[in-house]
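User: Fold this; tokens only.

Assistant: Input:
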Amino acid sequence: MPAARIYQRKWLLVKLPLACLAVAAMASLWVTWLPLPPSDITISSGQPEGVYHAYAQRYAQAFEQHGVALRVVPSDGAEMNLQRLRGSAAPQADLAFVQGGMGSAAVDRAARLETLARVDTEPLWIFSRVPGLDSLEQLQGLRVSLGPQASGTRKLATLLLEQVRLSPKDLVDSQLTGMASVRALAQGNLDAVIVVSSPRSAAVKAMMQTPGVSLVQLRRSAALTERLPYLQLRLLPQGGLDPTARLPARDSALLVTTSSLVARADLHPALQRLAAEVARDVHGAAGPFHRAGEFPNLRRIEFPAAEEARQTLIHGRPWLEQQLPFWAAQIAIRLLVICLPVALAAYWLARAIPAYLRWLVESRVARWYGELKFIEHDLSRESMTGLDVSKYLRRLGDIEQRMAAFAAPGYLMPRWFTLRQHIGFVRSRLVRMRGR
């Protein structure tokens, strides 16, 4: 009987294969369903002297404390960051800072990107050496820096010029940026500089302190916010950047947009959670245009929100990740979610299958006892004929043949021998009845 033979070798034929299958299942689920996060990722920041490059450096330090290497790659701006996130520019990036308004022109291509958080407010600064400049139309024919080709500044500046029917071709276009544009403006090599940058930018503060350079306040700014909804109008009070140096020198109404931390949609969920928590530490302080705790958030975003980041910003990271080091938490999560259930299932099967086989074996012996009991019951009849006796003798022989092929487990041997003795006792009675 196969069940009896399998039961006799249950360790080799049942329990060992189950253990191997359990290990294989754990390994497969670990690798395919819930793999460990990569140990190194890349963030595309911005200009090397810019605020967001400095932010990225702080991100790298925070990630390093959790055992993850975050490589910071400078870029020309938000447009290049998006290209790196989409994989159309080298090196590819997993995280990047993206300026508000960058997603609107490529919504159909944005499905592979997700917003982890809005992280800061970025004003649109226009600095000029031309006295009385207060409109975009007046830039026509002037030497104007619109920023590098792959920057968010150039894209936003181009959109603003389009609102007054101008284009970069109507200007003496320059791609200078950062401190290079400050020097060119100070030396009279530029008439105006348009830059989208954080108020903490060293270049912005330098231009405010440059003699002969003034901060432009555009007329009809409210109309621009209606046409470009990702822009808002905010008041920068006198001394809002530096009370000691009185920067700016007077209250200034500025157009502002926001910047977001954007990730590839396939970035590991654990790294999304970690990035969202680091963003809360880095960007949680107050700024000239926002209160403490206002950033990071997921309001008015242009790319879909990452669910892991949303939950982290609301509730924080999972309990295990808060209590254990990052990598220890990742391993503990997989031990609880993968290894423990698979091990319990394998343990249950290792108990259930042998128990089922044992039931099959014992039920077979019980049926033979039942057949023997039926024969014994018929022996008490007075109407037994020779044909009946011969039929029962053949049945006893059939039971003995099946018993001979039965590989009885050790614990059933006493019952097996007792059954053989009972069969011999019944046969002897049948033989005596035949001789009557």
